[in-house]
Amino acid sequence: MVNFTVPRRDEVSENNQAIFDNLNSKLGFVPNLYAYYAKNDTALADYLTLQNRKTSLSGKEKEIVNLVTSQINGCDYCKAAHTAIGKMNGFTDEQILEIRGGRVSFDNKFDALAQFTAAVVQNRGRASEAATEQLLAAGYNEANLIDIVLLIGDKVVSNYIHNITQIPVDFPAAPALETETV
Fold it and tell me: Could you tell me the domains of the chain?
């Protein structure tokens, strides 16, 4: 079995060391998944640029996409990280579990977003016409649709990196869903 390790600051390039320092000053630590990206000289900066791009989606909407995508892709790291970030964006524990299940009973617009995200991820970009129509009828537009797909792509990258490496999760574990509904 391949043993993937998280690099220390002194094991990464000078450019990545500067990013580590910035993350430490903003977050108080360097998340293991970000640190792993630093094994490549450009991947961490590239990923952070993608992740921090301007978007038409709110913080809550972004977390819905992140949580649904990570649940479907079975990424324990991203489920844990985005459970914490979802709470920081105002979702309750119960709401986060519901979102991860692909349905949102407490908000119709968020429900359309969760269902569309699930359809895109499960069908590798081929969302049903019904899911797309529901998204647009809920008030999202084509610019939002593009941002949703970009965010799914961002999250798929992290999901896959963690699913391959299984580096240690350094966030509180996300609770298991009672039933897998997505």
Answer: 11-51 (no CATH), 59-165 (1.20.1290.10)
